[in-house]
Amino acid sequence: MQSLTMTVLIIDDDTTNLSFLSTLAQAVADTRIVGFEDPVKALAWCAENSPDMLLVDYRMPVIDGMEFIRRFTALPDRKDVPIIMVTAETERAVRREALSIGATDFLAKPLDSIEFRIKVRNLLALRRSQTLLRDRALLLQSEVELAVAQMASSERELTLCLAKAVEYRDSETEAHVMRMSHYSALIAKKLDLPFAFQRMILLASPLHDVGKIGIPDQILFKAGPLDNNELAVMRQHCEIGESLLANSKSELMLMAAEIAGTHHEKFDGSGYPRGRAGEAIPLTGRIVAVADVFDALTSARPHKRAWSLDSARAFMQEQSGDHFCPSCVTAFLSGWEEILDIRKKFPDGVLIKEDMQHAA
Description:
Blueprint: E1 6-11, H1 15-26, E2 31-36, H2 39-48, E3 53-57, H3 65-73, E4 83-88, H4 92-101, E5 105-109, H5 113-169, H6 176-190, H7 195-204, H8 217-220, H9 228-234, H10 237-245, H11 251-262, H12 283-297, H13 309-318, H14 326-333, H15 336-345, H16 352-359
Parallel strand pairs: 1-2, 1-3, 3-4, 4-5
């Protein structure tokens, strides 16, 4: 058994008895004795400290042993502390009541020193084992949490690398992925979705266009408008992105796959690739559709000018219920001041790596 000093709290209003009990308890290995004649002061000490064992006399003024046990066990994390009540041999009714409120064992007066040491030693050994198991469980929990954090960090790094790969393939992205990912998290926040969801969509949404990795250069970089055949190929980026990410066991990557496959669906069913409508479109896709289109409208590109914020806002409202999920549009526009802050924080030309790590 690992050595662990155990604190024994003794309360007895008789100075002689308190000294005698303390001497007997001190004889048990690896013990630290704390003694009080005044049970009120003992309770005050217990409010700030947690003993490993409690020895309490039954007959005391102001607060007797029974009331002391009631108040002690009412304190947080005190119910597992072994309690020995010192009482007279004939007080059987008292013993039954004490057991019902939390006493573990009894010592009868006059005290038998051998019985005392055996009971104290055995209960402290049990307490020591419980403490070591609890500490081991906390250590394991800490190690699990560290492993999860390391996995999450790896996922963020993978997301960052993939987002950066898309940036190299598509010169129009620049800070677009940063703004739209923060817009997506903002919408989730305004919809009162859990913080874990808000954080995950912030990290997953930059991969919405990862499927463009699989689009031929002559189509992806074409300066003019695409013909029908080229447009059909370009639209395949949704399914390509979804298939790239969908086989992962990571919740983050699975959300990213869902977003990649659904962010071009429209609320009225006229979108692609599957023509889903209304709430048949996953909420992640509905959220990112709003964030993605708004930022695309308000960003200048080689082939177009940026729309004014007022024009883009009016368009989002006009298309609510047609292109966009109404609740997502309402949530997004309700955070207008935050939208403006995001635009200032992530102007075109921002380094994705630095800001993604900061955001995460």
